[in-house]
Design a protein that fits this description.
The chain contains 5 helices and 6 strands; from the N terminus they run H-E-H-E-H-E-E-E-E-H-H. With 199 residues, it is of the alpha+beta class. The longest helix is centred in the last third of the chain and has 19 residues.
């Protein structure tokens, strides 16, 4: 399987995405990355949550929060496209208005996340996005509220799929891999550090 190693920021159009194979699925590890984050990680990103394509929750059972384009640059300059893991936290205020958002209480704590950085080949996106799935059943939407993310490691490359079911299967594996990988002490230490110690 050939995967692009070019920094995502240099990609002006979607690179060819390998087709996900059954042998790839069977060979996936349960834990990824070294025992502690290594450069370029940790990577910090933040921005007001944008309205996305609306398909994560409806089509895939995996609702996502989209970061604004300008939030992608710090990560896209030093990593390639793919699926990543770490922690995320929603903040209480809507950035544009300064008013309190609908998402409050325990929903504002820090939770594990998986993030897709790239073009989502299955859906043939025409622009690069950063879509964050926070592993929490939120009580309300949080469009416009600030989202802080600390990315701690890489799970796998972006792949294309022959069916939506195969994509969903990989997403569920991604979530399991992220949770197990974050259980290691050096990763767990970042749980309260979504803003690099500034939150």
């Amino acid at each position: 399987m050939t995967v692009s190693s070019e920094p995502a920021l240099n990609q002006t159009e979607p690179p060819p995405a390998p087709l996900r194979t059954e042998s790839f699925r069977k060979a996936r590890p349960e834990i990824v990355g070294p025992e502690s984050p290594e450069p370029p990680f940790p990577i910090y990103m933040s921005g007001a949550v944008q309205k996305g394509f609306g398909r994560g929750g409806k089509d895939l059972g995996c609702p996502t929060a989209n970061l604004p384009d300008e939030a992608l640059e710090s990560m896209a300059a030093v990593t390639t496209t793919g699926i990543y893991y770490g922690y995320a936290r929603v903040h209480p205020v809507i950035e544009e208005s300064g008013k309190m958002g609908d998402c409050q209480g325990e929903d504002l704590e820090t939770y594990p996340m998986v993030m897709s950085l790239g073009w989502n080949p299955f859906y043939k996106n025409e622009k690069m996005t950063a879509e964050v799935h926070i592993m929490r059943d939120f009580k309300s939407d949080f469009y416009g509220q600030k989202l802080s993310v600390v990315v701690l490691g890489y799970i796998r490359p972006e792949l294309d799929y022959t069916s939506r079911e195969a994509l969903i299967q990989d997403i569920e594996t991604d979530k399991s891999v992220a949770l197990k990988s974050l259980e290691r002490p050096a990763y767990k230490a970042y749980e309260k550090d979504c803003l690099g110690g500034k939150n």
